[in-house]
From TrEMBL:
GO terms for cellular component: chloroplast; cytosol; membrane. Belongs to the short-chain dehydrogenases/reductases (SDR) family. The keyword Chloroplast applies. Keywords: Chloroplast, Lipid biosynthesis, Lipid metabolism, Membrane, NADP, Oxidoreductase, Plastid, Signal-anchor, Steroid biosynthesis, Transmembrane, Transmembrane helix. The chain crosses the membrane at residues 12-37. This is 11-beta-hydroxysteroid dehydrogenase-like 3 isoform X2. GO terms for biological process: steroid biosynthetic process. It comes from Raphanus sativus (Radish). It is a single-pass type II membrane protein. It holds the Pfam family adh_short. The keyword Protein biosynthesis does not apply. GO terms for molecular function: oxidoreductase activity. It is found in: Membrane; Plastid, Chloroplast.
């Protein structure tokens, strides 16, 4: 076993260097061509059936409006039936010819089965399920009362990511899966909490309509990952290329601009 690991320690760096100089430029060129091609390629969602959870407000509500503008049929899911009625009526006015609401809780398995069954029973098919419902928590480490809270949140996010990445491999090419990484978005769930706890909204908060439009466009282009706001993807790219520099810059930005947003009076 030691011989194997020693051999790999010597061999793999050589392979990586060879790949970087000989194949990586062509790989980047192919990625660029695909990126440019997708800018002009967009799925026509008119008549497509879209189920959106968490559709009563926030990102889910505004993603519904983006689909409605393009003529998609909508099944809107959330716990607040009164809010769903408002979103459904707005969606009809924006261009969706058929909208149904299905009140329920995604935390209940029987409700999740009901969402799917009622959508297919009404429309006869389901093209785009949008798993949007969820909660958000953005705090600095010192504000955690119990370390278990941080463990639960991070473990849940990591598990969801790996689950859908694995599911994408299993279901491809019959079913495509797009994973969205939203930043801090101005919604009824986030903005009042920031103002109450910290006296002002978060400095990098993105308007929810802008976020929803970016998500919708990414889905229609068939993106595998969507970062919103879109500039976040370049942070990930630079972090892979020069992690030390990115970490230094982020550290400086955090203490200069972000930490004051979290400081209590």
């Amino acid at each position: 076993m030691n011989i194997l690991h020693t051999s790999l320690d010597i061999l793999l760096p050589l392979v990586a260097i060879l790949f970087f100089f000989l194949f990586y430029p062509f790989y980047l060129l192919i990625k660029l061509v695909i990126f440019l091609y997708k800018q002009f390629l967009s799925e026509n969602v008119a008549g497509k059936v879209v189920l959106i959870t968490g559709a009563s407000s926030g990102i889910g509500e505004h993603v519904a409006y983006e689909y409605a503008k393009k003529g998609a049929y909508l099944a809107l899911v959330a716990r607040r039936e009164d809010r769903l009625e408002i979103v459904a009526e707005t969606s009809r006015q924006l261009g969706s010819d058929d909208v149904i609401i299905i009140p329920g809780d995604v935390a209940k398995v029987e409700d999740c089965k009901k969402f799917i069954d009622e959508t297919i029973r009404h429309f006869g098919k389901l093209d785009h399920p949008i798993n949007n419902a969820g909660v958000v928590q953005t705090v600095v480490f010192e504000d955690y009362n119990h370390i278990q809270d941080a463990n639960l949140i991070m473990a849940s996010k990591a598990a969801l990511l790996r689950f859908f990445e694995t599911l994408r491999i299993e279901l491809n090419p019959d079913i495509k899966i797009t994973i969205v990484f939203p930043g801090v978005v101005a919604t009824d769930m986030t903005t009042p909490r920031y103002i109450e706890n910290y006296g002002s909204d978060f400095i990098f908060t993105e308007p929810v309509s802008r976020c929803a439009k970016g998500i919708f466009n990414g889905i229609c282009r068939g993106e595998t990952y969507i970062e919103e706001p879109s500039w976040m993807k370049w942070i990930y790219v630079m972090k892979n290329m020069c992690p030390e520099i990115v970490e230094y810059v982020l550290h400086d930005l955090y203490f200069r601009y972000l930490k004051p947003s979290f400081e209590r009076d």
